Amino acid sequence: MGKDVIIACDFDSAEKTFAFLDRFTEEKPFVKIGMELYYAEGPSIVREIKKRGHRIFLDLKLHDIPNTVKKSMAVLRSLDVDMTNLHAAGTIDMMKAALEGLTREDGTRPLLIAVTQLTSTSEERMQNELLINASINDTIVKYAQNAKVAGLDGVVCSPLEAGMVKAACGSDFMTVTPGVRFADGEVGDQVRVTTPEKAKAIGSDYIVVGRPITQADNPVEAYRRCIREFVG
Asked: What is the pTM of this model?
């Protein structure tokens, strides 16, 4: 499985998104479209970015009863994205239903991955606020194992957990890891973070990088730095 960098296009309009993407004249980066941009612009933004030749990770983190998630995935499958996701906390049945909805009549589908725990969640918050008494590492590994049982392709986890997910679920089970910052950068609101270089060593397959690229003085150079440090 080849490693790659996914840029989180966390903008609130098509105008800002295309102003950013237009700066990339030589590369066609893999991009993540999250809730902010999708809710602002709707499915048309996905189609337009796809038309420009970018691969797309549609990051909407579905979490509802199995039937609702199945029907929602059946709508999203027509957008021709490359990857999408849901919350592993929705249970194995929900994940199986999602997979069913996402699979087209010809058997093809985007990659489907499950969010284990958000990178803004600390063990203390998980235990005190969510009343999950297991350790955060045990919880993440269990959620990843549930995703594998459901037939998913991988999980979203912090790079710090990518190695233990691989150990528990196999090297082919994909790890997509946000929470990546340059060694000389700000960590922002995320608490479980590491650098592109360390993420590569730990076992991440894809790193998702937002502000260190989108808010850089030179986003193209910041993207290339990520590629150099993570892909090599």
From this structure: 0.94
